[in-house]
Amino acid sequence: METLAGLDMAKVVQAIEWFHQAREEGHAIFVAGNGGSLATASHFVCDMVKGASFGKDSRFRIVALNESMATVTAYSNDLGYADAVAEQLKNFARPGDLYVAISGSGNSPNVVRAMEYANSIGCRTLALTGRNGGKLGELAALHLNVAEPHMGRIEDAHHVICHMIAYSFMES
Prior knowledge:
Strand order of the largest sheet: 2-1-3-4-5
Number of domains: 1
Strand content: 15-25%
CATH superfamily: Glucose-6-phosphate isomerase like protein, domain 1
Number of helices: 8
CATH class: Alpha Beta
Number of strands: 5
Structural class: alpha/beta
Radius of gyration: 15 Å
Largest sheet: 5 strands, parallel
């Protein structure tokens, strides 16, 4: 309970507004993570594609970049895993799009490099991190940090944040 009490709700509201603006303006949303954070990213994208879009006049253009194993492993094999997300953004992202990185440590090189690239082309950038926020926290325009050392609690809080965002659209 203490973990969630430390969330900056004004930043969650700002994130929801960014998702609203992306949907209304036709911008794409790209989400990435590793391990448990990849599972969170995938779950979140499913909630947004189906739950927050189905039956609605306005739908989200959102994708989890780590889900195409063929693409991820091709980049990983030929360039290195640290480039697997940024290289995909180079194919798809445009200025004004939203890049969301989820990392418990805030230091996963592949999502950090993608954050750097997204910033360089004028994407909005959002990071969900834990602990001290790591490099992602420093790079993101909007940083939702779960200042907690326990990875399980960080991941739980990230799920809650993602559900807060998704359900704000499902229930409206």
